[in-house]
Amino acid sequence: MRVMQHVSLALVATSIAGVLVASATAATVQVNTLGASSGWYADDVRTSAGVYLNGTNSSYQPYFQGALPSSTASDALIAQQLFFTDSGSASGGGAGVMVMDGTSANAGKTSVRYYGNGTGLGSLNNTFTSAFRWYMDPYSTSRTVALNLLVLGTNGMLYSMSYVGEGAAANAWNTFEVDANTATTDTTNYGWRVYSSGAPGSSGSSKSLAGWLTDATWGSILNDATVLGQGFNIGSYQRNCRVGIDWLESTLLNGGDRVEFGVVPAPGAIALLGMAGLVGRRRRG
User: Fold this and answer.
1) Phi, psi values for residue 41, rounded to 5°
2) Does 125 map to a domain?
3) Are 111 and 98 in contact (CB under 8 A)?
4) Can you count the helices (H) and strands (E) in the chain?
5) Would you state the pLDDT for residue 159?
6) What average pLDDT does this structure show over 108-132?
7) pLDDT of residue 10
8) Binning pLDDT at 50, 70 and 90, where does residue 66 land?
């Protein structure tokens, strides 16, 4: 996996500088765009040919840190793989989703994270919980979207932690809930994995989050690591699949209150939502 390829120490420096404190008055927020106004950014988006995209507005610039020139042309290409709609799903209605498209080839990838203003989100520990609702589009293949955390380990290195839940259904809404003790019956395909230089990644069995935090090798590195970003990704090796993210609730974001994705439809369009369309079952790397 190449997700860490362009991350630099500049991101680490700005992230440690301040930790986002959850507000006691936080309420549901609506996210319908990428960039500074929402704090949600594309950070590892690749075309079907495997070309990295660094958009001027939609990409999180510290991720690339000058390694790849930014362009509005890349913004336009990112918008073909990662965009917001008010159409809900083909069968389930809803008030909009964030669409993530795995592209037509295994070299493609779509990833989105919340980075806020480059500050840390908090500490990774056994109080972490997250829930999200998403739709699996019965595209050419069916895949599960991954919940993703970018963390700064206590050893000063960056790690990508990826969680894939089991039991998702195609052409249906799926709601996943995960906490530190959530385990899976199939650790070959599901659960938490850790990626970076030297990390076991897809080659090792997955664990619960608590399992990683107490692991003989990785526990001291990950326990109380600083979380720099949280989001979702689909691909690589998930060609011809789409998912739609409806909402996310996380102890690390918005004071634990809901983050809604998608464009809120005009009142006159609400009756049409049950006829709209979208969105994955397994993800690796």
Assistant:
1) -135, 150
2) yes
3) no
4) 5, 14
5) 95
6) 91
7) 32
8) confident
Token look-up 């076991």 returns: 200
Range of the domain at 183: 9-275
Cis ω for the linkage preceding 208 (within 30 of 0): no
187 token code pair: 């650790």
227-284 pLDDT per residue, tens:
999 999 987 666 777 889 999 999 999 999 999 999 875 554 444 334 334 433 333 3
d(CA 68, CA 216): 37
Asked if residue 4 belongs to a domain, the reply is: no
Residue 118 located in a structural domain: yes
Query: Token pair for residue 270?
Result: 């609400």
The helix/strand/coil state of 220 is: helix
Helix then strand then coil, % of the chain, to nearest 5 = 15, 30, 50
Burial profile 237-248: b = 16 or more Cβ within 10 angstroms, e = fewer: bbbbbbbbbbbb
Number of folded domains in the chain? Answer: 1
Q: Specify the pTM.
A: 0.82
What residues contact 28, with CB distance under 8 A and at least 6 apart? 254, 257, 258, 259, 260
Whether residue 285 lies inside any domain: the answer is: no
CB 103 within 8 A of CB 81: yes
